[in-house]
């Protein structure tokens, strides 16, 4: 077994050289690192990490499917026509003796929706803890410690996979301060995950009943909450952008399905969004008569 934690640089910071290529699950390297790749076998893992907003993050992992010397693939038209990894585009005369390429399994590999921060605490949990230089900044110390590939054993892989799963379940909004850049990357599902974990943010006494519930017509409800204080069922729809009339119709549809298919009564509709489009403000604010309500979210300024 030979699994590794591998650092990489974004193409725009690396003379447009893109590798790993996550869209096709390939990764190539040469010289000493190429020799290391030759020791990787089917079923091993490669975890890739890079700097994002002054921190280090794991952004993807490959469950290795195949490993080949690049020179052995240049006459294979199926490989050459299908893949665009830069190592496969070289002339055979330009190849290094150990130039190697890895193909990740498309089912078991993953590009992370929510990158996992590689912080000092995580590194201390690995079987071979990284030694950080106390005279450097945290980012510089972690980057230096991980400049050479870090070998991982079975317990390390299990730990990382568990942390990745938990991190993606929590989403980006996990009671930490976001940078301005990170705010722009927040998705509806991040807001959904945060509310699912913290339903009381919408009101006292709220409890999660269902998340991403699929009805018989294949429509999908973001969240279903119970108001334990008022004995109400609350249908919650989350929108990243300002809303219009169609959201009211969507909520009424979900409310009807909750009554018909789930047997609930005393149902209230709630949309969580950053605001209402001007033309629809009166219509949506007066939708309270139909037991449909709007809650607005925003971002808090902090200075650090």
UniProtKB/TrEMBL annotation:
Record domain Endonuclease NucS C-terminal: where: 188-279
Top-level taxon: Bacteria
Gene3D superfamilies assigned: 3.40.1350.10
InterPro entries: NucS_C, tRNA_endonuc-like_dom_sf
Pfam families: NucS_C
GO MF assignments: endonuclease activity; nucleic acid binding
Coiled coil location: none
Keyword annotations from UniProtKB, A to Z: Endonuclease, Hydrolase, Nuclease
Protein name (database record): Restriction endonuclease-like protein
Naturally occurring in which organism (per UniProt): Neobacillus massiliamazoniensis
């Amino acid at each position: 077994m030979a699994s590794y934690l591998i650092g990489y640089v974004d193409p725009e910071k690396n003379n447009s050289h893109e590798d790993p290529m996550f869209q096709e699950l390939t990764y190539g390297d040469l010289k000493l690192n190429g020799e290391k790749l030759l020791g990787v076998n089917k079923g091993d893992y490669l975890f890739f990490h890079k700097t994002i907003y002054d921190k280090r993050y794991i952004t993807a992992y490959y469950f290795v499917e195949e490993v080949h010397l690049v020179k052995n693939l240049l006459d294979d038209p199926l490989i050459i026509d299908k893949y665009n990894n830069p190592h496969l585009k070289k002339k055979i005369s330009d190849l290094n003796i150990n130039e190697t390429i890895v193909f990740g399994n498309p089912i078991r590999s993953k590009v992370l929706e929510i990158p996992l921060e590689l912080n000092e605490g995580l590194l201390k949990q690995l079987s071979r803890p990284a030694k950080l230089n106390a005279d450097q900044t945290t980012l510089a110390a972690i980057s230096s410690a991980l400049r050479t590939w870090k070998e991982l054993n079975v317990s390390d892989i299990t730990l990382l996979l568990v942390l990745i799963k938990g991190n993606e379940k929590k989403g980006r909004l996990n009671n930490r301060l976001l940078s301005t850049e990170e705010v722009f990357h927040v998705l509806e599902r991040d807001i959904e995950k945060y509310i699912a974990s913290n339903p009381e943010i919408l009101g006292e006494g709220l409890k999660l009943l269902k998340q991403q519930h699929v009805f018989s017509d294949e429509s999908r409800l973001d969240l279903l909450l119970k108001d334990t204080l008022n004995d109400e069922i609350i249908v919650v729809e989350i929108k990243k952008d300002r809303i219009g009339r169609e959201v009211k119709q969507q909520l009424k549809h979900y409310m009807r399905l909750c009554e018909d298919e789930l047997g609930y009564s005393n149902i209230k509709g709630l949309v969580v969004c950053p605001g209402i489009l001007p033309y629809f403000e009166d219509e949506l604010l007066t939708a309270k008569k139909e037991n449909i309500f709007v809650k607005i979210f925003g971002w808090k300024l902090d200075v650090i």
